Amino acid sequence: MAEAIEAPYSGLSSQRNHLYATSSVVVPNAVVATNDSSIVSKRSVEKFYVSDRADHLLRHFVPKFQRRSPLINRGYWLRMELVKQTVEEFLSSNTDVPKHLINLGCGFDPLPFHYLRRYPGIDFIDVDYPQSIRRKAEIIRNTPELNELLVDPSYSPDSDAVIISSANYTAVGIDLSDLRKFDGILQARCQANDELLFISEVAITYMPVEDADSLIKWAAQFPGAKFALIEQILPAGEKHPFAKTMLSHFRKIKSALQNIGKYPSLTAQVQRFDAYGWSSVVACDFYGAWCNMISSEQKSFVESIEPFDEWEDFVSFGQHYFFLYASSRMPDAKQMSLFTREWTCGSRVTTEDIAKPDLKNLQSSRISTLTAGLEYRKHWQPGFDRRKLGAAAKLCDGVAIYYGGMDAKARSAVTYIFDEAKMKVSRVDTSPQPAPRVCHTLTKVGSRKVLLVGGRGNPKSALADCWLFDGVVWTRVQDLPNGRYRHSATHIFIESEDCVLVFGGRGNGNEVYDTWVLWSESNGWSEVKSVGRSPISRFSASLSWFPSMAAGVLTGGFSREGHIISDVLLVSLNGPGSIKQQRWRPPPGFGSNLLGRAGAQLHPIGDTEALLLGGVLGSHCLPADFPGNVLHLNISNQEIEPLCTILSGKEQDMWPVLMGCDCVWLNNRLHILGGGITAFSMGSFWNLCTGILEIDQLRPAEIISRRIKPQLASSENISLPDVYSAIGTPKPSLVERYILAQNTTEIQSAIRRRVPLLFDNLSFGECTKVWSPEYLKAAFGESREVWYTMHIPRIHIM
Ligand SMILES: C[S@@+](CC[C@H](N)C(=O)[O-])C[C@H]1O[C@@H](n2cnc3c(N)ncnc32)[C@H](O)[C@@H]1O
C-alpha cells in the first residue's frame, strides 16, 4: 500500500495466547467447528432455494446433506441474501479503482467462487484460522470445478499465512487477532485508495472483544473501506427467553459469543463503529431486513418453497440478529438507501440516531400508571408442560378448557380442564374427539359450551372441522366454508342467539383471508360482508367483542408477507350479514406505538376495557418486565396505557414467554396457559411448568411504585434508548396554559401530577424584546446548538 497504515495498536494480542484467556467457554477448535454447522445449514438453503444448480458450490464442502427445518432455512436464506445483496452492489458499482473483497472468518463459505468468473478484476481474500483454511484449500484443490476458476494458483498448506495464492484469490490462514500479520498481507495487495469490502458473517463475535474492536478500528483506516457485519444482539436483555436459549447454546458448545455483552444492541454496535472511525453506519435487525430489504417477489418465492408457519419464532430470531453496514468515508449508495428508505417493521439505527440525546432519562415519565402482579406457578400436571399453540376458553365459573397445541415432538389431541378453585389441571379422555391440531380457536358459547374452530395439522392442511364441547363430550358441528388457522374468533349475541364471529386466518396454498364468517348452532356458517373496505387480510390478529358497546376490536396480526400490522379497528354489525369497521386512531405516544403485534391475546376485563398481552411486536423485542408487554385498552375513550407487570414469588428470573400461549379470564384473573418459542437452531424455550400465570386485579401504580424500580433496573443491560427509538420517540403533547393566580387549585394539582404548565402573560424582562434571531446569532455564533435539560424528576424539557 502506498500510504502507510497506522501501525496496529499496542494492545494487539499476537503475542498473547487469548484462546483460553478470555472465557472458560471459548475453545478455538470449537469456534472453528461453528463453521461445520453453519455450512450444513447454508447447503440446505442452496439445495432448496437456489434454482440454478451451477450455483450449488456448497455441495463440494458438505458431503453429507442434511435438510434443515423451514425456520432455519428461512433464517439462513435471509442471512445469505443480505450478504449477496451487499457483495453484488459492491462488485457492480461503477468505479475504476481496484476492489478487494475480504471475508473475515469465512469458514467454508465459497462466496468468491460465485463471482470469480463474472468479475475478473476483483481481488478476493478469504481469512480464517489456519486449520480451517487448510481444510478448505484441500477441497478447492481437489475440486476441478473450483480450482479451474483460480488464475495460476499456488497451494502452500504448510505456510503460516497465505495457503492459496493466485492472481484473483487468496486464502489466508491466520488468527484474526494477529493484526500485525494481517496488516502485512493486505498492505502487499492494496493501494491507498482501493475499495475494500470487509465481511464478517457471524465470525468476529467469537473473538475477544478488544481484538475485534482493534480489527474494526484498523479496517476503518483504509480510506475506501466498507464493513458488513452480521451477528447476534440482545434487544431485550439476556433474560429474554430467546436470548437465554441462545447464550446457553453457545456456552454449551464452548464458543461463547464474546462481543455481545459489550455490544448488546443496535445502538451499541453503531456507536462502536462510530467510535472506531467509521464515518457513516447503519444497522437493522433481521426482522427489519426481512420487511424492508427483501422484495415482495422474493418473499413470495421463499414462501413457495416449503410450508412454513413458524412466524413468532422467525420474528424473535430476526430481532436477535442484525446487519450492519459502515463506510470509512462518505455514505455510499447502499447506505443512502438504507438511511432514507421508509422503514416499516423492525428496528433500524443510524449514525444520525446516536447523535440524538439520551432518552434514558425519559423512562420514569413514561411508565404506566397501572400495575399487575404476575404469579408463576410450577408443575401443574405432568404432560401439560411444554405446550404451545393450543387454545383455551372459559367453560363455566372458575373452570376453563385447554385443547390441542404441540409439545416438542407432536401435535396433541388432548383435552385438559383447569379448575381455578383447586388450581388443578386434569386430563379428560373423550371419544370422539377432534384430530390433533394447533392454531385453532376455542370460544365460549352459551352457559357451558365451547366452540372449536379450524386450526391446522401441518401448515399445508388447514382444517375446516368445528366441534362443540359441553364439559363432557365433543360433538362435531358444521364445517367452516374453508379450512382456516391463525384466525381470530369472538363470541357475539345476535337476536339472543350465541354466535361466533371469525376473521382472517390462513388457508391452504398460502391463502390469507380478509373475510368474516359467522357461526350459530341453528344456522351453521354464513359469510358476513364488509361494508366499505375490508380490513387488510391478516393472520394471528386479536379480536374481542364488547356487548355493552355493541362493538368489537380487531387489532394487529401478520400480513401475507409477514409484516406486523399496527392498526386498531372498531367493528360493529351493520344489520344482519354485514359488518362495518372504523379505524381507531389512538393518540400518538408510547402506548400506541406498542400496539402493532401479532399472536397477542386481547381479553375484555370489563364492559369497555381489555388487556392486550404478549405476542411479537413489530417495532421491537420488549424485555418481559418492560411496561408495555401488557397494554390496558379503554375502548370507550380510546385510551391505551402500558401496564407494569411485576413477577411475584421467588422465580425472579423465570419470565415466561408470552408467545404461543392462550389466556382465560376467570374471577378477575388472567390465566396464561402454555407458551414457548423455538430459538432458531439453538434450542427451544417453554413456559416450563406450563402452569398458570396469573395477573391480579389492576392496582394503581402508586401503591407499589417502589417495587417497580428494581424490576426496571434489572433490564439495564438493554438499551432503553434503543427501545424508544424503535417504538418512536416521545410525541409532543399539549401543555396546559394558565394565567397565574387564577387557577391555584389546578396549579397545585398539576404540581402533584408533575406535568409541565405554560403561564401566559408573565414578564420575562428585556429578553423577550432583545433576543431576536439576529441578536442570538451575533451573541452565540451561527452554528451553536443549545440544549437545556431540567433535572427535576419526571419533568424533562428538550
Ligand atoms: C459461525 S462460522 C461462520 C463462517 C462463515 N462466515 C459463514 O457464515 O458461513 C465462524 C467462523 O469464524 C472463524 N473465526 C472466529 N474467530 C476467528 C479468528 N480469531 N480468526 C480467524 N477466524 C476466526 C471460525 O473459525 C469460523 O470459521
Automatic annotation (TrEMBL):
InterPro entries (alphabetical): Kelch-typ_b-propeller, Ppm1/Ppm2/Tcmp, SAM-dependent_MTases_sf
Protein's UniProt keywords contain Isomerase: no
Catalytic activity annotation: 7-[(3S)-3-amino-3-carboxypropyl]wyosine(37) in tRNA(Phe) + S-adenosyl-L-methionine = 7-[(3S)-(3-amino-3-methoxycarbonyl)propyl]wyosine(37) in tRNA(Phe) + S-adenosyl-L-homocysteine; 7-[(3S)-(3-amino-3-methoxycarbonyl)propyl]wyosine(37) in tRNA(Phe) + S-adenosyl-L-methionine + CO2 = wybutosine(37) in tRNA(Phe) + S-adenosyl-L-homocysteine + 2 H(+)
GO biological process: tRNA methylation; wybutosine biosynthetic process
Pathway field: tRNA modification; wybutosine-tRNA(Phe) biosynthesis
UniProt similarity note: Belongs to the methyltransferase superfamily. LCMT family.
Descriptive protein name: tRNA wybutosine-synthesizing protein 4
Source organism (scientific name): Arthrobotrys conoides
